[in-house]
Amino acid sequence: MEQTNVQVMDNKTSTKKKRGLAYNLKKYKGAYLMILPALISAIIFSYLPMYGIVMAFKNYDVKLGIWGSPWADNYGFQHFLAIFKNPEMFKAVKNTIWFGLVILFGGYPFPIILALMFNEIRSKWFKKVAQTIAYFPHFLSWIAVIGLVYTFLAKEGPFNQLMGSLISGWEPINPLMKSEWFLEIMFVSHLWKSVGYSSVVFLAAITGIDPGLYEAASIDGCGKWKQVWHITLPSIKPTMVIILIMSLGGLINVNFEQVYGLQNAFTQLDNEVIGTIVYRQGIMGGKYSPTTAFGLFQGVVSLILVTTANWISKKLTEQSIW
Amino acid sequence: MKRSLGEKIFTVVNTIIMVLICIVSVYPYLNQLALSFNDGMDAISGGITIFPREFTFENYRTVFSDPSFLSAAKISVLRVICSTVLSLLVTYAAAYGLTRKGLPYRKQLTLFLMLPGYIPAGTIPIYINMKNLHLINTFWVYILPGLFAFYNMVIIRSYLQELPPEMEESAKIDGANDLIIMFRIIFPMTLPVVACVALWLSVGAWNDWTTTLTYITDRDLHTLQYLMMRLIKEAELANSMTMQQAMSKGQEVKAKVTGDTVKAATLIVTTLPILMVYPFLQKYFIKGINIGAVKG
């Protein structure tokens, strides 16, 4: 439907192109004027900064400007090589990938399971209430969620209360001050904030399944589990694949707000990620060229990941985001 | 249809787990709410659940009498209004323009607007660009970079494409020009999607604090979310670094503890607007992501 529309319009476009640019601009003056603010905004705030990527290959000096600054060593690749030589940066790369892997693959099944559970609730009223409550954390800002985490994990807070009542002789601790707990806290707070809202897409897909399939299956003697396994999951496979591809870019793009918010004097050094290094050394520290290179490295890897995943998915399941 | 014993057990277990999930989802917030209404000195011993033990309004009084809080609240509200209205205007106009019948170069223009989403310039180049534009430490850094959002444009565009074309044609015959058609005829018909995107934009603007972190050092331009971030991180620092010393001096312990309940009150005030629009949010956001999922 959409496809044919575009084609029809293309035909019209090609006949009109022959009448020349000036004619088109005049005839569609109103439409172009309406698009103009968006174009200007894209040029100034999205395309103009792309020129700044050159800084990654130079030794940027504020006084000389981007173009006037001298090129970096090693044919301009000095700052990229430094990523692997600098222990701090290399550790941040490792952390970013590790955190990304855990959050992506560890967290991936939960929204699907939650959607399946929502779907099984019989009472309409309870379903609505449960959804309303489960989606709520998504709308809080990350820093508000982190505020809640700090209170929850404080020595006199609910976490230690709970552990104290479960384990006799529990010595109250504050996990936020322990580096080795950082990833666990990140994972759980991420799940807490996003699991409900992430389930919406899957629930929509499940609701779209033809109920006749379930009826036929239950006549054939299929139980609940078999129905989920043989009907529900295969039916929502396209959604599952698309969501997986879209989140693959996140493998090297750990949420800056979350990491920065959770870091403190005790946990910061061991748990730096690419985003926080770019912020601290670049924006705070003024080392513009090395951090531009670092950010570019992240961007390129992320793009490669998404493109590759998309390509593989196209071959295997004929699902793709482009 | 008769249900087997297994199915009945399943329903019960499912309900119990759902109830648990609901409790886990709201408990931290209710706990914070209770804390914000609790006396600061009393809270030191911990053990507060979802009801305050020693009820007081003192924490809220402290929050609302703090000049930096009032200034931040003003900036936050101002920025939400400005960025929502202006961004909606720019994005809507672009969506409208791009859906005009037979528009030449439609594909090229759309591609041009879409591309930056896939190739972001990166934090530092964007920062340097803002610096060169002299937007650092100005109110405009909150508004201008977000004027156009491709995803929102797609949502509005798909809604516009569904409208019957006859409406517009008859208006044109009556001699109305493009602007009149857009504002008088098309705009009112697209109010549901406008409301959806407006809510989207305002929640995004309200919840954002990294813009302040990156571009603003001027205290007069701090937002509520940023203020809260400072409060949370500084309280944590004080908590971890000087707890030992503070223990020996009663004065500092008092300052720190009152800080915790005031922090809770700040968090509640900062998230209250979200809570108030939440019923609408739930309705429209979910509609929005479903449009996005289908039309993407």
Give the SSE layout.
The complex is a heterodimer of chains A (322) and B (296).
Chain A: H1 2-17, H2 21-27, H3 29-47, H4 65-68, H5 78-85, H6 87-107, H7 109-120, H8 124-135, H9 142-153, H10 158-166, H11 182-207, H12 211-219, H13 224-235, H14 237-248, H15 256-262, H16 274-284, H17 288-317
Helix pairs in contact in A: 5-17, 6-11, 7-11, 9-15, 14-17, 16-17
Chain B: H1 5-36, H2 40-43, H3 58-64, H4 67-98, H5 106-118, H6 123-132, H7 150-162, H8 166-173, H9 178-189, H10 191-207, H11 210-215, H12 224-241, H13 243-248, H14 250-295
Keywords:
heterodimer; A: 322 residues; mainly alpha; MetI-like fold; globular; disordered N terminus; B: 296 residues; 76% helix; 0% strand
- Poorly predicted spans of chain A: 1-17
Between the first and last Cα atoms of chain A, what is the distance in angstroms? 17 Å
Strand content of chain A: under 5%
Q: Helix-strand pattern of chain B, N to C? A: HHHHHHHHHHHHHH
| Biggest sheet statistics of chain B | none
CATH superfamily caption of chain B: MetI-like
Tally of domains of chain B: 1
**What is the CATH level 1 assignment of the largest domain in chain A?**
Mainly Alpha
Global morphology of chain A: globular
Helical proportion of chain A, percent range: over 70%
Number of helices of chain A: 17
Structural class of chain A: mainly alpha
Written description of the protein model:
The complex is a heterodimer of chains A (322) and B (296). The two termini of chain A are 17 Å apart. Chain A is mostly helical and 322 residues long. Chain A has 2 domains: 2-57, no CATH class; 79-317, MetI-like (MetI-like fold). Helices cover 70% and strands 0% of the residues of chain A. Chain B has one domain (65-295): MetI-like (MetI-like fold), CATH 1.10.3720. Chain B contains 14 helices and no strands. The longest helix of chain B is centred in the last third of the chain and has 46 residues, at 250-295. The mean pLDDT of chain B is 84. Classes of the chains: A mainly alpha (322), B mainly alpha (296). Chains A and B meet through helix 1, helix 3, helix 7, helix 8 and helix 9 of A and helix 1, helix 4, helix 5, helix 6 and helix 9 of B.
